[in-house]
Amino acid sequence: MMSRAAHAIGRRALQEAARTHRLPVSCYASAGHAHREGGKGAAGHVRLLSSKAVDTSDDGVEAAAPAASTTIPHAAASLAGGLGVALRPREVVEQLDKYIVGQPEAKRAVAIALRNRWRRHRLREAMRNEVIPKNILMIGPTGCGKTEIARRIAKLSQAPFIKVEATKFTEVGFHGGDVDQIIKDLVEISITMVKKARMENHRAAARLKAEDTVLDLLLKAPIDLEGNRSRESFRKLLRQGLLEDIAVDVDVPADRGAPSLQLDQNTMTFTVVSGPRAHPSAGGKRTEQKSMPISKALPLLTELSLEEMVDMGDVTKEAITAVEQDGIVFIDEIDKICNASDYRGADASAEGVQRDLLPLIEGSAITTKHGNVNTDFILFIASGAFSQCKPSDLLAELQGRLPIRVELKGLTEEDMYRILTEPVTNLIRQQKALLAAEGVDLVFEDAAIREVARVAAKVNRTVENIGARRLHTVLERVVEEISFDAADTAPSATITVTAELVARRVSDMLIESDLSKYIL
């Protein structure tokens, strides 16, 4: 019978493990419970409760954890249970507000979509398999924030995410990329994410193993009581960085062999690949001995240990599950594969690509070199300016698969000013940071910032509306001379940008007869 002290210790250890690995409360048991449930009673051997043992309510929602819980009970929880999935919609909008000005409708739609992924994972399996994501179509002029929203979603979601340009794909049978490549690339991204997460979990153990290897190379003596003391004293010196310059001989993988061609059966294309040459007499990888300082040997041995500790078979399985359950695909420039209703002609990158996208968005099994991937529960977000056509010119079936439509508004002069001042990493701060590297303190007067915003808005109205991207053109014109002379300026110098300086630097941009040459 396990003692009460051991019971308490085991329970605390498991609770800490649950918090560390983001396991749901219902998915761990104390060592004592494991003993009574028929699992092994030894500490560290715990039988996890299956999802079937969790009480469920009649409406299909698991009742094991309170609504405020931020854990996600599925195989990819360690990957998908991060910041973005657990954030409430209001918190997602607040995060987006730090980098994107305006567009509240688009932010709300994205926030709800992310939260619905979290909600879906809390349903019973029968109900969960019936709930599919509501895909989003974002419509708005260029430079209004569509792509920036995609970039921030990728960082917030902490789930497999890929952004693609619709124009890079062609209809099946034509030269060019097929839309299936989207999912193949998403799987590769997911594998990288899962592998990185697992390697971080094992990094401490790998570092310890690398230290032991280095100490073995340093001591090269049988381990006795005196040797153990000497070993620990050397370990302290090693961790203090006092042994970094000592050279050791390390066994490292040999140089890769000659490159070879690999045929992709799906696309019928060849890829140049190279792999480590096998040992002549054995099937393992060939190694060679290299002499290097400990400062280089320790990181190298750590990475080699991590590669051994991570099972790529398990990584691939978890990565595919993460793609299927939490994958997000952002398709930009979808209006470029849409022809106006009065258009007559053939285009391998237009309606045919839309037809190829239909089964992908609706849900189908895509064959990859790592296995089949089901796209039923992948969230698709499409965006486009639709300046030459209308959203209604898309195939009716594709419109139906993008049920949530969000319109982003064009940017005004006030929006331009806010873009220059409000985001955490706005353009003004970027310019100041760049010149600070030269020891120059760049100061923008508020009137100067408003003048930059006014000029950008006016050029957008009179030439071509490229949205916030116009600010780059105007601001670079303003600081061009300052940036050129910064390296020759006295250290700790202060340069103030005034409204008069801005007007003088961009005056020629406001001459409408010559504006065309400044079009990006």
TrEMBL record:
InterPro entries: AAA+_ATPase (IPR003593), ATP-dep_Clp_protease_ClpX (IPR050052), ATPase_AAA_core (IPR003959), Clp_ATPase_C (IPR019489), HslU (IPR004491), P-loop_NTPase (IPR027417)
MF annotations from Gene Ontology: ATP binding; ATP hydrolysis activity; peptidase activity
Stretches assigned to the Clp ATPase C-terminal domain: 411-503
GO cellular component: HslUV protease complex
Keywords: ATP-binding, Chaperone, Cytoplasm, Hydrolase, Nucleotide-binding, Protease
SMART domains hit by this protein: AAA, ClpB_D2-small
UniProt xrefs under PANTHER family: ATP-DEPENDENT CLP PROTEASE ATP-BINDING SUBUNIT CLPX-LIKE, MITOCHONDRIAL-RELATED, ATP-DEPENDENT PROTEASE ATPASE SUBUNIT HSLU
Protein name, as recorded: ATP-dependent hsl protease ATP-binding subunit hslU
Upper lineage: Eukaryota, Sar, Stramenopiles, Ochrophyta, PX clade
